[in-house]
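WARN no homologs supplied; continuing
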Amino acid sequence: MKTKRIKWIYSLWILLIVLSYSWNYYIAESNNQKVVENKARSFFSQIVVARSWNSKHGGVYVPVTKETQPNLYLMDSLRDVTTIGGLKLTKINPAFMTRQISEINKVENDLQFHITSLNPIRPDNKADAWENKALKSFRNGKHELLELVDDDSVAQYRYMAALVTEKSCLKCHAVQGYNEGDIRGGISISFPSRIYKQSENARLFHLLIAHFLILIVGLFGIYSYFKMEQHLFTIIHEKNQELESDTKLLRQTNEELLKINTEKNKFFSIIAHDLRSPFTSFLGFTQIMVEKSQTMSKEEVQNYAVSMSNSANNLYLLLENLLEWACIQQGLIPFSPEQAKLYPIVDSSIAMVVDIAAKKEIEIKTSIPYSLEVVADNMMLQTIIRNLVSNAVKFTPKKGNIYISTKVLPDQSIEISVQDTGIGMNKKMIDTIFRMDVNTNRAGTDGEASTGLGLIICKDFIEKHGGKLWVESEEGKGSTFKFTLAAKN
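OK structure emitted
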């Protein structure tokens, strides 16, 4: 029955993620289409405004050059004039101006305009097959057409909007039978689709990664919930059998169940809130880049990328602590202490948080004799050092310092200290910081999320070594976390 239930929940979760991705995929494609459409309309609008200006002035005179010869299709007695100084001028009408603007844009911006109609005055203005289709659609009430077209293996967006005959246009087009307000043709605009498709594909890739991460975390949370539920029911069943004969065992069992329930609540609280927060930040930054990447500067993209990286780092550290804590509860972490040099272990541990510290301009200093040896499980000791140093970085303001040092105690055990110049703690927090049943969460100096789970893991691991963990701190004056390890077997 339980197996069937978890399969249904798994299926529902996967379906929700697929539906979410499909919807966001649709939105991303729609947004890309709108961007292309707005760009094409903007180009068309600018050309129409320029043509209108030219038309209202009855054309514009420019010097005759090799590139600008008189327009043979402009029937105007004043088409060509010569100034008193002998400079030859020719009149540029709206159509000629459109062609010249198109030639410049084709060279400089890979963008091409073409003025055309079903009844052109100039043969070169004859419509191609796609333009013919667009012009015919204008007769049926449409005013614009946008399509993605593959021409000679080059994908292009093609846009065309109708040109409406204005009063100033009748000077040239009245002979063709046009009246004011008639659609006499259109201007087509062509530009490569490559840059827009690349941008769209990048957004879809980010969406895919984000949904994949959410899917994995959700499946992990569901699995952990059912494993914890199964574990709890097993313990409750065993303890209820023992409660029938032993009152003392009843108290012990109740205390144990309370501890397990507290751990379960802590676990679900982290999944429900603390795990969601970095995901919310990550998805928020991703959505911003999806919606605004076309208008963002390179510096803004870099800033959002850094923020996304920080969210991903925080999420990774939290997931790692959750996995380690879950393994501790299940008794799945092997304990293999051996004698080893302390310095290389500390050095490899802090290497994992050096980049995070560098972003806050925090300097990490060590004072550990290279020959000093301890008896410890290598992986557990790395986890302890990493969590304590990461915690110190989190609660230390920018340009602070962290010191890692050692001291040999009279009983020959080794005391390891992680001292910071951070915000410190009050007495109440010091008394409860290692307790599972008290919520000691607080944000870091840069708003970093904190669950308190890392210190609980450190305490469990250190006690497994037969050592102890404690903290010395004063509010506003930093904190020093200390723990002990054996120096010899």
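The longest helix spans residues 2-56.
OK
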